[in-house]
Amino acid sequence: MNTLLKSLFVASAITSMSAAAAVTQTSATEASFSFEGTIEPMCKTDSGSNSVTGLNLDSTQETQEIGTLDVWCNTGENATTEYSSANGGFLVADNAQASKIAYTLSIGNTSGVDLQSGTYKHLTTVAGTGSTGETQATSLKITPQSNGMNDAGTYSDTITVTVSPN
User: DSSP readout, 134-152?
Assistant: First the structure.
């Protein structure tokens, strides 16, 4: 009886396989194939000119360019950029006192950005588009709040920029 069940099972499997592979007759003269894929929205960035080593930190509080931010997005729209300061919005000296000088940031035509209160989101950063990857540059500048009486030392900060599509 066991052998009979095995034979029925094998016969059933062969019948099922041949039924699944069978070609049915149709009267159509064409076939259609539908397919799709998705490219998620994204932006890329690079720092153009940067690494300024000669900031003027006297009492003039002169606005000075620190570099350009180059942005490309595949959305055809501007980007959102988020700015954060390693030193909480201060230039910090390499002296024993770790002296600080506050500054404000300018992003293109937006000025007076204070990073002391945390990160700052800029919703209208211009972005290049297209399949060849041309970027659009946004000028970044700082205005040190120095008074000409600051402690001696080399002052620095690092601003990190994260870009995302609008």
Answer: --EEEEEEEEE---S-PPS
- What does the DSSP assignment read for 40-60? ---EEEEE-S--------STT
Query: Does 137 or 11 have the greater pLDDT score?
Result: 137
Residues 6+ apart with CB under 8 A from 103: 89, 90, 91, 142, 143, 144, 145, 157
Per-residue pLDDT for 120 more than 90? yes
**In angstroms, what CA-CA distances link 128 with 73, 82, 94?**
6, 18, 38
Q: Helix, strand, or coil here: 35?
A: coil
Query: Which residue reads 């919703």 in tokens?
Result: 123
- The predicted model scores a pTM of 0.77
> At 123, which CATH number?
2.60.40
How many structural domains compose the chain?
1
Q: Is 11 domain-assigned?
A: no
In-domain check, residue 14: no
**Summary mean pLDDT of the chain:** 86
Task: Give pLDDT, residue 127.
Answer: 96
Range of the domain at 157: 43-165
